[in-house]
Structure formats: C-alpha cells, structure tokens
Structure to design on (227 residues):
C-alpha cells in the first residue's frame, strides 16, 4: 500500500524496520512483540494513532507475520475493537480464538491474550477505556450497570450492526473524517446481559452477547486514566 494512502497517515507515532527498536516501543505500551528470524527481512512496522479523551483510534501494520502478546496484568484497562484493513489476524486466549478478517471485526479485552498477524496484514483498532465505556452504558440505560461488562467476541460486518458500524465510517478510507462518531461505535460494541439492558440495546440493534471469559472485565480491575 502507498504510505500516503494509509489510514491516519498524518498521525504517525512510530515507524521502523528495526525489530529491536520496535520491541522497545511496544514494551513501553505493555505489549511483547515476537518475530521469527526469517520475518525480520520483511518487517515494516507502522503505528498511526489519533487520540481522543478516554480512547484512541489506531492503524497498525507489521509487514511481516508477527505475534503480539498482551500480558495477564496491565496498568491499562481499555477494550479494543479491531477492524480489518488488509489480510487477517487471529486473537487467542484460554477460551478460544477469533479471526479479524474482511467482513468480521473482533473485540478483545484488556489482558491475557495474544494476536497472530499474517504477512502483509493491517488493521484499525478503536481502544476505549473501561470508564469511558461504562459512562456510555450508563447514559444509554439511565443507571450505572450492576454487572461486569461482557462483549460478543466478533462482529459480522455484513450484519445489521456491522453495516451500521461501516456507515459510521470506521474504515481505512475515511477514519479521520468520522472520528467523532466514537460514542455511536461504543453503542454498537456493548452487549446486553440483563433484561433491562437488552431492552435498551434492542433500540440500537445490538446482537445478543456471546459469553467468553476473555471478553469479561474482572470486578477488581482498576480504572485507567484518560489516554
């Protein structure tokens, strides 16, 4: 892909073909990068990020195949909605795997999983802190949620909710133009658990939650500061 046409191109935070430099950068963000020796020849890391209060939208590519580990304990508590730009990646934890690929987005939790990105793949990731997500849920329900947040691990981008997400413009071509639709995107991400929540989310076409341990927030997790 022509770099001038990359999503969020004018919001570059880091790029490098040096695996060691990228290891250090990712470690500073609480991630561990793993590369096979043969992959270093085609390694081409780019991170473009647009920051917003309590969230950010980022474009990331590795060039090569890569594995990214998210530790079981982190200072941050943000959830991620991964949307494919090119190719595919697989996000795995003890409960199973979910594929982020054309036509399917993936939601991942703050800790305890790893991602395998295929050669030449790239994606957009919307990161939202737990506090920001809870505030949006409270605004929708009119009351603070009493249970842990739980998400469907995947979203079919051809489904009704997925098509709405696509219409909001969270895609490779016009990500910058539609950054201010973040609250609408969060509405589409949050899945209902109680009957009251289901009734509220029926009005915004939310699919029923698929319960998976890796998509559930622990009650003891601390609130992260604003991004």
């Amino acid at each position: 892909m022509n770099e001038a046409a990359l999503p969020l191109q004018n919001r570059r935070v880091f790029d490098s073909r040096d695996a060691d430099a990228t290891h250090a950068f990712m470690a500073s963000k609480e991630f561990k990068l793993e590369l096979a020796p043969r992959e270093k020849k085609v390694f081409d890391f780019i991170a473009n990020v647009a920051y917003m209060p309590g969230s950010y939208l980022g474009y990331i590519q590795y060039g090569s195949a890569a594995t990214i580990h998210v530790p079981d304990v982190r200072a941050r508590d943000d959830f991620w909605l991964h949307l494919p730009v090119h190719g595919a990646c697989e996000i795995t934890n003890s409960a199973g795997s979910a594929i982020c690929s054309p036509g399917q987005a993936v939601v991942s939790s703050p800790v305890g999983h790893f991602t395998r990105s295929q050669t030449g793949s790239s994606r957009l990731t919307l990161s939202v802190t737990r506090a920001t997500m809870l505030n949006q849920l409270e605004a929708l329900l009119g009351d603070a949620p009493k249970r842990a947040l739980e998400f469907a691990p995947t979203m079919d981008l051809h489904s009704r909710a997925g098509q709405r997400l696509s219409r909001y413009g969270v895609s490779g071509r016009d990500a910058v133009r539609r950054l201010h639709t973040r609250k609408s995107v969060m509405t589409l991400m949050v899945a209902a658990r109680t009957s009251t929540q289901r009734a509220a989310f029926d009005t915004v076409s939310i699919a029923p939650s698929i319960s998976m341990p890796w998509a559930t927030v622990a009650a003891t997790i601390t609130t992260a500061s604003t991004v």
Remarks:
- Residues 130-215 form one domain.
- Residues 28 and 52 are 20 Å apart (CA to CA).
- The longest strand covers residues 45-52.
- The radius of gyration is 17 Å.
